[in-house]
Amino acid sequence: MKVLLDTNIIIHREAGHVVNQDIGILFKWLDRTHCEKLVHSKSIEEILKNKNAATVETFKVKIQNYEVLQNPSPMAEEVLAVSKKMDSTENDSVDTVLLNEVFCSRVDLLITEDKKIHAKAAALGVSDKVFNIDRFLEKIFSENPELVNYKVLNVQKVPFGKIDLDDPFFQSLKDDYGGFDKWFLRKYDESAYITINSNNGKLLSFLYVKKEDETENYSDITPPLPPKKRLKVGTFKVISNGFRLGERFLKIIFDNALKNKVEEIYVTIFDRTDEQKRLIALMEKWGFVYWGKKGDESVYVRDFNPNFAIDDVCKTYPYISKNRDTFIVPIYPDYHTELLPDSILNTESPSDFVEDSPHRNSISKVYVSWAFEPHPKKGDLLVFYRTGGLYKSVITTIGIVTEIKENFSNKEEFVVYCRKGSVFPEKELEKMWDYRPQRPFVVSFLYVYSFPNRINMSKLIDMGIFNGVNDGPRGFRLISKSQFERILKETASEGSFIVD
User: Fold this and answer.
1) Cis bond leading into 374, ω under 30°?
2) What pLDDT does residue 150 have?
3) What is the mean pLDDT of residues 194-212?
4) Residue 157: enclosing H or E segment and its boundaries?
5) Residues 112 and 193 in one domain
6) Domain containing 383 — which CATH number?
7) Same domain membership, residue 301 and residue 168
8) How far apart are CA 433 and CA 419, in angstroms?
9) Same domain, yes or no, for 18 and 105?
10) pLDDT tens digit string along 39-50?
11) Are 257 and 273 contacting, i.e. CB atoms less than 8 angstroms apart?
12) 389-398: per-residue pLDDT in tens?
């Protein structure tokens, strides 16, 4: 596979001082999957103009590690039209030259963290060939599950004092924040959330959150934040590894916000590096908006008052509405905890689910179905029912529908759509497409809540939700609002995430 690399990725890779650990992980997997690494002659011209002489000299030595596209392909008319609308600088024009190579199929893929290139790719209909680092790694792991031979230990909450401050993970934070070491030591008795690569014991992600009340002084923020109960995201960093750890940690942030009954969440973050910009884009997807500045950092806030917006449920997540339709949905035991790890049963061993994968960590998930109507709609609720008979089957989880996708044009479109949020590897998804003449449809949903107490089929029959042992759901079983409220009561569910 021919993979063209954006200029900034090459610069970060060949810099004398490592500023982005994501790049090292990317190059490891490019080599491991025998991809041909390509650099464009226009990128070389840009790199040779770099103000950092050491970077230029290092690149001159290492240029032989890449196949060079010496002569740009003729610009396609469609690409020229997009360039005319969207390009305003010389760098924009160079980016479009790289994108043209993908559009003309001279290369298979382009890897870039540049949001504008991705916007142009969408306008040209080639987003499936233009990847950021995370999406590329997700693709590689889905297509080659046998190659993923290491485990990423699941999220742990540990005291600062048990975390290695000399881990290379912290270098960028030390560079950005003068006095980071002293701040870290002051927090020795407090706790942070981390994940670790179990092969080498090195950190892959780190999150520290802090509750603040109405007396907090925000005079160093412009404009100052008004008095409110808030959750501060003090430190948040995730290395790209294709396992969607960013969403996993956002879920932890939202869980802490619910637990502490705050009105708002905020984060201060630099927007200098691709890594930081990617994290900002992720947070914006989930409702964070730009507020102002704290020194050189940008401040982003997320309103956390109970609210439900049907037009974009991500931005009001984890809140749901009882006034939407609710469906009980069956899921086989083999797939249940793979897709919904937070809903693990007491009879299952957590040690069987320590190896990370995109579908486990993501808030966004997909459910593949051939069921006849009724089908849920965007904003409707899903109550997942782990099958297993009269006493072993249980309802475990609430999800909220974000999209119903059907009428896929071909198998490839179906596989690409499902790949990130499905429990199935790519080859299994291909088999599902061919399984029967009636093509499957896909329900995209957000994982919201795991019931504290579990109700089995026997109890559901007593409650009048099922009519007998042969009445378990085979598709999407619509239940009434009163039945859903009874389920919430019987499962001792905490209702702060529910908007009437």
Assistant:
1) yes
2) 44
3) 85
4) strand 152-159
5) no
6) 3.10.590.10
7) yes
8) 13
9) yes
10) 898 888 887 877
11) no
12) 888 889 999 9
Q: Is a pLDDT exceeding 80 seen at residue 495?
A: yes
Reported as a single tens digit per residue, the pLDDT across 219-238 is 999 999 999 999 999 998 88
Under a CB-based contact definition with an 8 Å cutoff, are residues 414 and 408 in contact? yes
Is residue 295 left, alpha or beta, with left meaning phi > 0 and alpha meaning psi from -120 to 50?
Answer: left
In a domain? residue 259: yes
The H-or-E segment that residue 210 falls in is strand 202-212
Residue appearing with tokens 């950190």: 203
Nearest to 433 by CA among 444, 442, 421: 442
pLDDT in tens, 316-334: 999 999 899 999 998 888 7
The 8-class DSSP code of residue 147 comes to G
Separation of alpha carbons 315 and 305, rounded Å: 12
The pLDDT of residue 344 is: 60
- Give the pair of three-digit tokens for residue 244: 């969607």
E-assigned strand segments in 287-422: 289-294, 297-303, 320-321, 326-331, 364-369, 381-386, 394-405
User: What percent of the chain is modeled with pLDDT above 70?
Assistant: 88
* DSSP string covering 403-471: EEE---SSHHHHHHHHTTT-SS-HHHHHHHHHSSSSPPEEEEEEEEEEEEEEEEHHHHHHTTSS-STT-
Q: CA distances (Å), 312 to each of 7, 239, 318, 402, 462, in order?
A: 34, 27, 12, 8, 37
Q: What are phi and psi of 25, to 5 degrees?
A: -65, -40
What's residue 369's pLDDT?
A: 87
8 Å CB contact between 156 and 195: yes
Classify residue 139: in a domain, yes or no. no
> Tokens 């029912």 label which residue?
385
Q: Does residue 188 sit in helix, strand or coil? A: coil
Q: Is residue 148 scored above 80 in pLDDT? A: no
CA proximity to 303, closest of 315, 320, 321: 315
What is the H or E stretch that residue 477 is in?
A: strand 477-479
Give the three-state DSSP class for 39. strand
What distance in Å separates the CA atoms of residue 376 and residue 477, rounded to the nearest whole number? 10
* Domain-located, residue 201: yes
d(CA 102, CA 55) in angstroms, rounded, equals 27
- Name the residue range of residue 117's domain: 2-131
Pairwise CA distance, residues 291 & 114, whole Å: 23
pLDDT reported for residue 142? 65
Beta strands 230-238 and 264-269 are: parallel
- Side-chain-facing half-sphere of 20: CA atoms under 13 Å: 23
CB atoms within 10 A of CB 392: 14
Task: Return the closest-CA partner of residue 379 out of 443, 426, 296.
Answer: 443
Q: Going by C-beta distance under 8 Å and a sequence separation of 6 or more, which residues neighbour residue 281?
A: 115
